Amino acid sequence: MKETLKARCKAEHREDLPKGGEAMLFRAKIALRSVCDITPQLLEKLGVCGLLLDIDNTLTTHDNPVPAAGVEAWVAGMQAAGISLCLVSNNHPPRVEPFAKRLGLDFVCEGKKPLTKGYREAVQKMGLSRKEVAAVGDQIFTDVLGANLFGVPCIFVFPMEMEKTRFFRFKRRMEIPFLPKKIYEENKELN
């Protein structure tokens, strides 16, 4: 008998999965245009004090060793507000380590998202529990799905640029039905 994704998650004691069917595993809690739109006030509303951050197309363009404009200041502001940050990337150490060092952040590379291994390792490094963190990323089938499987809220940010490879163009087309319909507004209540 074929076991459903939700049944496997329940078997792993993830009772805090999104409600509303398996399609909800591909839906983020909220969507923003950029990682720099995340504020300590928003995280307080979500009840979290730590972020698990994707790199490519979230903090910088794909394979760029330099953070996007405003990201270094955003990281400094979040840290000053007491928010713990950790990079979680599917990329390899030569890509992730120098980027993390530049931002002064801890990291997990080869995170294997959407599997939960990388998120689990990052939360341990941060000394926090799952209930204290949210994940941030630009991809539905890795970042959003992985966060939901791990049982943490996901903040979807729209990609900084569209990738050129055939694989990524195909993947982005497959994400369309699950893309958020609206951007979160700071003065609105969370659903």
UniProtKB/TrEMBL annotation:
Transmembrane segments: none annotated. CDD domains: HAD_BsYqeG-like (cd16416). InterPro entries: HAD-like_sf (IPR036412), HAD-SF_hydro_IIIA (IPR006549), HAD_sf (IPR023214), PGPP1/Gep4 (IPR010021). This is HAD phosphatase, family IIIA. NCBIfam families: HAD-SF-IIIA (TIGR01662), YqeG_hyp_ppase (TIGR01668). GO terms for molecular function: phosphatidylglycerophosphatase activity.
